[in-house]
Amino acid sequence: MIVDFHSHDFPDALAARAIAGMCRKTEGFLYPAGDGTLENHLDSMRLAGIDKAVLCQISTRPEHHAPLLRRARAIMDGEFGERARRMIIPFCSAHPADPDVAGHLREIRAAGVKGIKVHPYYQGFSLADPAVFPMFRAAADLGLVVTTHAGFDVGYPARRDACGPREIAILLRNVPGLKFVASHLGGCAGYAPHSTDELLELGCWIDTSALHRDWHKDEQIRLLRSWPSDRILFGTDFPWTDGREAVRWVSSIREKEDLDALFSKNAERLLG
Ligand SMILES: [Zn+2]
User: Fold this and answer.
1) If 48 and its partner were Cys, which of 28, 98, 186, 243 is the partner (CB 3.0–4.6 Å)?
2) How many Cβ atoms sit within 10 Å of the Cβ of residue 211?
3) Could you tell me if 120 and 126 are in contact, meaning their C-beta atoms sit under 8 angstroms apart?
């Protein structure tokens, strides 16, 4: 069993534009391994032997709440077919500029959605800003898992101040009990080696999606090799990496006896 804790796809009518937009914004640094559609995502999972994938939807504007929740419901209800219903675990999102963010988080929970994804650069906030703590407190009280983009982002090369290990630590100290996943190995790219280790004592999880394995390579491998196996979740960030290659990379670095935890057991425990 393999669960991918970090993946993306888009409604068919938007997929091509979304993928092209990301490629342009990152000046070619992101190079897609898929076309951004749900069907292509499912095909790619099958090829990689990935059984289930958390779909990370991001609201870049507050008014995206309703369409993202509608899409999550449609996937869970089987409107996109049995394969999608069985294989995709849709997450919704929360936007700090949404005046009814607490009410919308309750709607997400009531729909049976397990968690939310945030992306501070694309949503214009810092995880360390006290103004956003109530939003995360509300998510924690509802038992929602929160996953965040962490660290440097190729779309915002000049910034390091929204979701690095330091900002994540401030958030977790202020919102105890939050089930929190920091993507991209906790944001190892762009920070001093060992910065992410501060998050261990705060109960943070990290995912294995690493888009630029030739940058900070030693630190990426150190994190993947040395963090406790019960705090790492396999993630691809598909379509920005290929699932087969991501499975191979993690399997080649981590000891065999830890792989069950990384590939599925931890995700099952976190998602309940
Ligand atoms: Zn991602």
Assistant:
1) 243
2) 18
3) yes
The Å distance, Cα 7 to ligand 1 centre, comes to 6
Instruction: Report the distance separating Cα 100 and Cα 170, nearest Å.
Output: 24
Distance 131 CA to ligand 1 centre (A): 24
**Quick one: tokens of 111?**
């729909």
User: The domain spanning residue 47 has which CATH number?
Assistant: 3.20.20.140
In 88-231, which residue ranges form alpha helices assigned H by DSSP? 101-110, 120-123, 133-141, 165-174, 183-187, 217-226
Q: How far apart are the C-alpha atoms of 37 and 220, rounded to whole Å? A: 29
Write down the number of H helices and E strands in the chain: 13, 8
Q: Which domain holds residue 247?
A: 3-271
State how many domains the chain has: 1
Looking at 96-105, 108-117, 155-164, which range is the least confident one? 155-164
Higher pLDDT, 104 or 156: 104
